[in-house]
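Hey, quick one: can you model this chain's 3D structure?
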Amino acid sequence: MENNFSGKPQTTMIICSLPADLNENITSWKEYRLDFLHSLNQFAQNVDKKTILTIREPDEGGKRHFAKTQKNIFYKKMIAKYDCLVDWEILKYDKKINLPSHNLVLSYHNFGKWEINQLENIIALANQLPARFLKLAIPINSYQQLGQIKKLIETSDKPVIWAGLGKLGKLSRALYKFLGAAATFYGLEKFPTAPNQLTRQEADKFRLKKLTANSSIGGIVGGEQVAKSLGLEFYNQYFNSHNYDAVYLPFYCDNFNDFWDWLQGSSGFLGFSITMPFKEKIAKKLDQKQPINLFLPSSNIAANTDIIAFQKALTHLQINEHHKILLWGYGGTATTFLLAAKKFKENIYVDGRNKTKLQKFIKKFNLKSATSAPISQYHLLVNCTPRGTSTTSLQQEMLPKFTKLIDLPYQKKPTELVQFCQQNSLQFVSGQQFWYWQAEEQLKYFIKQLKGKL
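Sure thing. Here's the predicted structure for all 454 residues.
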């Protein structure tokens, strides 16, 4: 399965960006940010050919100002001694600086508004100047911009070092090969040198050093919660342990049309898990009647593995047609539960906080309202809402009586509903267990896709 990467640079550099006063043993590519020092005379790190020395000015996102002459003299001394790379802002560079082109990284930083005309001019200027690399550090706040920067990088006659900023900054860095760049940066979690920087743990998890021009890209599409998805660990560990050239990334999205248009203009993706709030939106794009939580664009396959997970949960908890079920929620996941529990429909009661949406849901599926037809005790509570998590607490004294639970949310510590079940010796299926059941099914699709069997 081949991706549509730009084939230009053969160089691959995953660069650890460090404050110059931090002692950290990095044996591969590294950048020392000397503007973190009060004086250049303080610099006492090991430097070699895989080192980039950077003195960033305050208007470039740096910490301190150093005189242009002082900076130039220091750079030339370090180049002569170590044959290292040095960084200079392209709009402040002129021929009088006269640094060796083989050691020079020309960089452009923009922390403000996206300006495509300016970027075109920067790349045109870089193409005229002698340098080894062009570094771009600009905000990426939409998938449209991600597509535009990919096309712009193709016009550079120098290998590009990519340092995305903005809402999609981290994702864009993980996609550096997809963008056609030669390199990207990561930092140390407690000592970042730039906003939206990948951490060393994330760089390792996404195996950035192993990504190739043919790597298959997959991931999870959703809101801010995708950064904490269990899938990032689960799928990447599986791909690594089974030697698949693939990666699973968090595709944060706040505008599904923006993501969808970008996806339609790209190719070669492995597949995407779809989470809230986009399960129903992608179903409409694909003319599907039921919510979708998995899409394989190369094969145009859409599926909902939550249905299988719900069926496993109902079997595990030994729920039958005579049991009374309380369903919390009226979104895509609640709709999926109804698909999995068709034979239990006569005994399903629904509740939710937004009464207008709740009534539409009840009318659409011809269900019973838990408030208009209350039950003294339910055999099963199915929570398809964030209730009981760290963001949406609940009052236990207001809980309906139930004996078993399917709780969809998951977080590091048990949710309040799971804790309640543990304290009262009630059977439950946690969000983690539910997630694992549906992830096993998605993995089967990913493996078939990787093996070319779809």
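One thing worth noting: Residues 1-9 have pLDDT under 50 and may be disordered.
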